[in-house]
Amino acid sequence: MTWTILILVIGILLFLFGGMLLPKGDERKPSASKIVAKKCISLIAIILISGSMCRLYMPYYLTAVNPAIVQEMVNGMQEQQQAEKNKQIRKYVRSEGKKMMRDAPVLGNRENAKKTIYVWTDFSCPYCRRVHGELDRVLADRDDVRVVVKNFSIHGPLSDAPAKAVIAANLQDPAKAAELTDMLMTREFYTQDDLKDQSKIGEKVEANVMKMAKEVGLDTEKLKEDMKGDVVARELRNVRDLAQRFEISGTPFLIIGERAFPGAIPADQIESALDEE
Which of 13, 93, 96, 144 is deepest in the core (most CB within 10 A)? Predict the structure, then answer.
């Protein structure tokens, strides 16, 4: 702002007194070069004044006269960024879709789905639980969809055991892994009493998860062993790598077909996105 005011002052001074910078001569019969020089100085002065005035007026115009244009510019920029992100996602999903699904739990029509949804989720995230309910509604309405669950373990000990357990369960029985996923999303797997001793919260969460795993008919001893294995580590690494690639900073985050949808979107929006693919 200071530089803008300074340039404005210089422009005004040039406009008013710029002729004094030229060599003195016969003012009654000035030479052609002197006339041209005066006009050039006046033109430069007008440019400096106009530019400075525009720069000084623009913030006022954007904030007081027409603030909606700022929102339009932001929306336009966000749409452009989202379009570019969707382009990158489209290219990657088409070439690496099988790799993205290889070790992940899958809900819905695992083998014959025509439509695929990828969801980055966390079992301890309330918004993820909400979007899980919306996805359940979609799966109940149609049999041409599968949901690939990418367990983004971002809440430490509250998230680690559930995320590892469902990936490990997928090695035993994909149907039971889907059942465990639904159970962990719809029931509480830790209590307020569990949270009192933070040093043991991980152990308590895992114990509670094992109870649910046993309830759905999984071999819990094998499950514990597989939770420490290479497949679970590979899938969690894949989840993190893809989150970085797609600039996923939080959960839930959905890729429906080949487009990104951050946040807990409702079932009707999910349906619309599927139908547009």
Answer: 93
Within 10 angstroms of residue 256's Cβ, the number of other Cβ atoms is: 24
Contacts with 84 (C-beta within 8 Å, 6 or more apart), sequence order: none
Is residue 117 within 8 Å of residue 255, measured between CB atoms? Answer: yes
SS3 state of residue 39: helix
Give the model's pLDDT for residue 134: 97
Interhelix angle 201-215/157-172, rounded to 10 degrees, is 30
pLDDT tens digits, 4-40: 778 777 777 777 776 676 666 655 666 677 677 777 8
Do 110 and 174 form a contact (C-beta atoms < 8 A)? yes
How many Cβ atoms from other residues are within 10 Å of residue 48's Cβ?
Answer: 19
| Two structure tokens written together for 266 | 């409702």
Q: Give me the mean pLDDT over the 160-186 stretch.
A: 96
- Location of structure tokens 């514990």: 224
Kindly report, residue by residue over 91-117, the tens digit of the pLDDT.
888 889 899 999 999 999 998 999 999
Cβ atoms within 10 Å of 171's Cβ, excluding its own: 16
Beta bridge partners of 115: 145
Q: How far is CA 52 from CA 3, 4, 14, 159, in A?
A: 9, 6, 14, 55
Q: In what order do the strands lie in the sheet with 253-256?
A: 106-108, 145-151, 115-121, 253-256, 259-262
d(CA 25, CA 208): 98
Residues 121, 128: contact at Cβ < 8 Å? yes
β-bridge mates for residue 260, sequence order: 255
Run of H or E including 184: helix 174-186
Q: Which residue has the tokens 């989202």?
A: 82
